[in-house]
Amino acid sequence: MLVQHHPHPASAPPAADAPRRARDWAEIQERMLVPLYEAVYEHLEVGTGTRLLGLGCGSGLALLMAATRGARVTGVDTDRARVELARERLLPDPEPGPHGSPGGPRPEPRLLCGTPDTAADPAGSAYNLVTAFQPVGCTAGDSDGLVPALTAAVPTAERGSAVVLAGWGPPERCATTAVFRVAGRLAERLRGHGAWRPARRDDLEEVAARAGLRPDGSGRVSCPFGYADTDSAVRGLLSTGLFDAAVAACDQATVEKEIAEALHPHVLSDGTVWMPNVFRYLVARIP
Q: Phi and psi of 281, rounded to 5°?
């Protein structure tokens, strides 16, 4: 997941605690968007004929889900710690064959730490699906890096291929909005660099237009954020990178305390945290 002002989409910017934060993302936060991934894959009938390029692939859960449907997948991200976790998920040690020899050949995902212009298939095959599941529409300038990333990815895909963009739904339908407002308030002195802003109805269409893509349908998906307890919720939300500007403006302990307080209305009687949210996806086409 993933939403800062970068020159290309990344799950979260590098940090001193990048490995721990990447693990929090993979173990706590990433699964919150599973309904979004499933809805998109169902809508586009992802399967054995799909050659997918995932921009900002993070720790690879969306790629894994596509691969289990038979898709050939490539993922690219600038967060090295998350790419390493994706490799653990998608590139397990081969099962030994007879007498300890490696198992038979199998198609393997490609997982790259870098920018989209490094993702061209070395065999020359063009992609027919590009995904950018990192949601936009939550912080100021969070789509600025997406346009050049899409522009760089387009030459690697076939004409007419689908490009999927994802974004936050209306603030009134996203309970997590109130928590993200905390980030905006704490980052006030760094205005314009990660400050919260409400999602707009045409965020995704604007990105598609700037990247020269043709909109071809959209949908909304319920993606509730559920956590075992407040501590898990704080760790998961921090792993998104959405609070980095707030941490830079004050300090980690203050941000953690403010997030925990903002979560109080969403803590259930058993101590779990539950926040209903709606996400939106746009399917665009490469002309």
A: -130, 150
